[in-house]
Amino acid sequence: MKLWKRASGALKDRTSLLRANLTSRSMLRNPSIETAVIKATSHDESIVNYRATQHVFTWVRISDECLYRVLWVLFRRMKRTHNWAVVLKGLMLLHGVFSCKVPGIQHIGQLPSDLLNLKEKRGNVNVFIHAYYAFLDQKSTFISLHSQEQMKRSVAFSGDETNEEQKRMLMIQDLIWLQKLQGLLDSLLRIQPKSSQTVNVLVLEAMDCLMIEIYDIYSRISIGIGTLLMKIYPVGKNEAVIALPILQKAKVQGEEISMFFEFCRDIGVGNTSECPKMEQIPEEVVQELKDIISGDLKQPSIENFPKEEVKSVIVVTNNSISSLKTVITDDWEVFEEQKKSNPALISPPVKNNTTLPDLISL
């Protein structure tokens, strides 16, 4: 039965490749792009075609037009298949596409609601896939909304100076985005195989990608908190009231991440041996915020907040505005401290010359 299934899947892939090669070029269709996507999302449950995924990312980085062609082919293939391996590879490929530096990533928004059409009774594998899809949908929406918000801010506060009320407004907006980023991290931490039977080559590959993403997002949250706290201390109580639950949640998420990484180590995810220890937010920092709210703080020690340089899976541009301003990636802000980068998802995107607009920093 397994042999027949493998043969059937291979035949479907060959048929799809033949059709792609016979397709005429049009506004949406490009035979080379379709071939790369098909090879990257094959029915083979035992392997990921890294060369094909890199080929797809190369197309994506050429232009927004190529990005939309890739997405059209990928979404069309995922909607038509009932095979879990094709769908999971498609989600990993989409995850990697989000790491490519082209402006069009910011305009994708909510993913198609009919992207998953699984009919195989794979139980926990299907649960894993649906959780992965839910995260990518949330991330894509986050990227789009955050980009729109930052563009509005760049227009509304385009002057050389902002008054105190504007600064407080910007700070509150930044705190709200940190809360949303923590919600994104919550979605990530929910993506886990529920049993040993769920663990296979493709699931382990997906978990590898998720580990990198988790470390990246938590690093962004930590640096964002550190940057904002330096502004909150001289401002006062109202902002501290908003910031306190963010700090408390960050402490909880730090512990959850440690448990998640330990779980990944137990099931044999490849990146666990290279994953650095997560920095925990000191209890003194939380206590100082409480003291601000109660009015008991005398001398803050915010300089003790850990702000070591962290790694990022997203390759950033070199367009820095100032030490506290940001450079833009394909999805959201990266603080200036985050200039080191990790290998990107599945296959590392190569830097290109696409320059994205600078936005207002935290």
From TrEMBL:
Primary location recorded for the protein, binned into one broad class: cytoplasm
Top-rank taxon: Eukaryota
Localization per Swiss-Prot or TrEMBL: Cytoplasmic vesicle, Clathrin-coated vesicle; Golgi apparatus
Presence of the UniProt keyword ATP-binding in the record: no
Alphabetical UniProt keywords: Cytoplasmic vesicle, Golgi apparatus
GO cellular component, one term: clathrin-coated pit
Protein name per UniProt: ANTH domain, phosphoinositide-binding clathrin adaptor, domain 2
Species annotation: Helianthus annuus
Lineage: Eukaryota, Viridiplantae, Streptophyta, Embryophyta, Tracheophyta
